[in-house]
Amino acid sequence: MKHRASTSIGRPGRGLGRGRRVALGVAGAAALATGACRFERVDANGAAAVEPDLATQVAALLDRQAAAWNSGDLEGFMSAYQRSPETTYIGSGGLIEGYDGIRARYAPDFAAGAARDSLRFEALQVREVDARVGVATARYVLERDGMVTSTGPFTLVLLNVEGAWLIVHDQSAADPGDAANAAN
Prior knowledge:
26% helix
């Protein structure tokens, strides 16, 4: 079936009269004002896109971060953090301010020939503070040759920056008696 372009609405050969245009304008404005119209994201096939919940997004972020750590990819590991001088990290070594400072703290772990244990995260709990802020708690586990070398809890504050959840504050602690992390 072919469609032909037409500027008339209603009966063929006739445009809208002034009264009909005003009525349609008022109806459109009322629909917008009452929320009858809404915009949805759609996927590549035109279906409504389903946004994963915050916990799913944070779990994926941490999975990518652990994979980057385990493959020796400092930039991939750091991509979880917001590139901002306001981003902070607190470990046993105290407060580190700014993305560059945090990167400098982790860089030696990624140096050629550096011994870096395998990283995984567990016991993730996430809560959304509001549409732009989330808080996550979990535990990190470092292993070498099947033996746990370091574990501890951490808390992340995440910010939704243009649809991507990024870490803006990271506070990590080693479990008591964990000498391997005394320098963090």
